[in-house]
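Trying the structure run again after the queue cleared.
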Amino acid sequence: MPMPLRFFLLPAWLVLAGPVSAAAPVLGEASAPVAGVALGAVVRTADAEELRFYVLRALTDRYAAQKGITVSRPEIDRYERHVAAFMKADAAKRAARLAAIERELQDRSLAPDRRPALEAEAKTLRELRASEAREAAAGAATAEEKAARDTIADAFIRQWKINRALYAAYGGRVIFQQGGPEPLDAYRKFLEAAQARGDFVIADPALADGFWRYYRDTSRHTFLPSGTASDRAINNPPWAAR
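Done. Tokens:
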């Protein structure tokens, strides 16, 4: 009996992804279209950046497990001390800035066109100060708040360790993001190798460009100087700078 025609019309992404269980986990909204497969999990989304997020999370979670990347309690404590010191220093800077603005606003020679911007900035600084005062008056952090801080610290440190390991494996250029230095080229090579192995597949060709743009469009990034500067940024924990 000849094979049904539909057998030959299976989507290419399904063939490349290998067998996917009917009970495979779903990443994203169940009602969203299938965007790809990552380590056997079906990714459902219509957004390229969300697809990249799910794929990268699945791959880096496995990578961290393979490399034995963990976070210790002393590391979390050190990170939280760093954050507390930073916030204290930042509050002092804001207080000094507010005092300077208030002096400037009292100056009768102040140009009228400067006053609205200064008053708006002063309002924002006072609101931040009031918010911090309320938090201080509330007393010690609750167990839930402490757990939330620990979770944030754990995620930040773990991500830094993954970045360091990928940079050691692949090298390349480094950018600086809000979360710290990021080995952009290393991530691109890591993802390209994973795609070549079939660890993930992009089902919707329309999402492919958006998925890769962050890594391949170098015009959108400012890179750290190569060599020593990049090595130092990646290998030295940001929270150990003080």
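The chain is about 60% helix and 10% strand. Worth checking whether this holds up in the mutant runs.
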